Every structure is written in structure tokens, then in C-alpha cells.
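Example (one chain per record):
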Amino acid sequence: MRQRGLTAQRDTPAEGQARLRMEKRICPLTNITVPVFNRYEETLATLAALRTRTQTPFILTVVDNGSEADLRKELLRLHEEKLIDRLFLLDGNYGVSCACNLGWKSVDAPFFMKVDNDIMPIADKWLESIYSAWGTQRYKSITGPVWNCAVPRNRIDTPHGTMWSMPVSMSGEGFIVGRKVHERIGCFSEDYGLYGEEDADYCLRCHHAGIRKYSYEASGLLERLDADGQKYVAYGKAKVAAHNKNVGGKPGEGIFPLNLFLYEQGLRALNVPLRYEVKSISGPHVEMRECAGHGRFFEALTYCLELFHASGGKPDADVAEKMRIALDGART
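Predicted structure:
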């Protein structure tokens, strides 16, 4: 539709085709995947806002990690009413990374976007604004949100919004990755358990692959629900505990510092193997299982972590060679 004076008139066929071509250039099809584990009110608010506020081509994919029955029932209703395009109800909680990866692989779209189930669009054309500011860099970089950033360094002002060039890591709450980057780096790492460092890990792998990272100004576009963390205190504590375990409290502790070392030294591929795969699907219900061979790889990674810990987080060349042999052996 277009406006002539105060009267809306339909596009001619030629105008309609031209408009669609322009929309595809500015806003390519995006697979918006929402990983869900409980948070009934926040989840429904996020999904409703995504459906009503998103005015660019998108597929709404929801992957539920074994939420309580009332939320799963509501997700089924939304799917039946075609408000959710793709719905996967997992048979347990396999973690944020696994849920994202399943949703990511389920849709062949040029771009994938991870939206946490407590992040709500508050502006029309919010996604169009991100793509417009990101510009042609979107084909060879990744982007994520920042709120009310006042840092002048690395700031990039465009006619369509403000971006920041990020040196290493950035927030993953509204993470967007294009197909070309995905083909090189793969999906999120599933090394980190239920709540992990999947976003920071992905940024690290991009960094070592020479892929740039940009943050977009999210204030005015997205809103964090339960921003102060007071409603879900137990969830917040579990997430902090998982983070502390993954990053470690002392030198040589934590799977994240180990992976940092392995990526830096080229001892581990940047396109990492996944831990889980689909065993069976019945409608929206999905049974998962551990990938064949992952147990052997996990044993090798555990062995590397032991070596890393014994070295105080500073492995010498001999220790690094032992790690390489262990990881290579697990891949064969």
C-alpha cells in the first residue's frame, strides 16, 4: 500500500514487485529463534511483540527447553493459530545453546537472530533499523545489542542509526549472524551447560577468524523485561553459578579460558562440534540425544582442562602438544 494525499491506494504490480525487491535488499528473511525455559509472562510478551512489531520478512521459531505445562500449552496454542511458525518442544532442558542451534538449523534463511525470551521489541521497524544501520557489513560480520552506550571510541554514526565496532565480545541477547559467517564458524558451542558463555565463545571464534563484530544501539528498539533481575532471583543465581564455573575462579580453571587458549593456539577448530542431535520428532515434540562420538571428544576436552589447570592456565609447548594429540585423537 502507498499513500496519495489522505487516501491509501494499492501498488501497481510493477510497483509492488519493486517494493518487495527493495525490502529484501534492506531486510532479508530472518530466522528469529527464541529459546524458552519458563518465564511465562515474559515469554508471551516477547512473542506477541515480535509478531506485532516486526514488519520485515521473518520466521518466528520457538524452542522450548522443558518449561512448565501451562507455558507449553500456550506455546502449542500460538503455534496452532500460526502466531509461531516453527515450534519445538524438547523432552528436557538441554541448555540455551542447544535450543538456539536446533532453531538455527531448522530454517534455511540468510540471517539468524537469537532473541532471549525476556527481550521485547518496542518500536515498529525495529529490525529494519538494525539492518539499515548495519548496512552491507552484515554479510561479513555479526551484530548484537548495546543499551545507552556513551563510549565515543569505535562509534560509527550512519544515516540510519549508531553502531559500535567491538574489539572482541558483545551482548548476545539480540545476536544476528548471516549465512556466510555461519558457514565458516558454525553454531553456538554446547560445551557450557544450561547457561553458558555461548555468546562470548562465538565472538571469540569470529575474532580469530578475522570476522568483525558490531553492536547496535538497542535503546528505543528493544526493552529488557525484568531488567533488575528481581522477579527470577533463583534463575539469576543459577546463571551466575554456571558462569562462575565456566570462567573459573583461579588461573587454569574453567572451560571458557581453556577454549580461549585452544582457539588462540589453533588447537581447536573454530567450527565446533555439537553435543546434541535430534533422536526423533513427533509433531512439535522432539527427543534429543548426545551425538555419537561426543563422549570421546568430551573426555579429551576434560583431559585438556586437567592439563590447563595443572599449568596454572599457562601451558608450555609440551603441554599444548599433549592437548593437540588428545583432541586430534578424539576427532578420528
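Caption: The CA atoms of residues 262 and 268 lie 5 Å apart.
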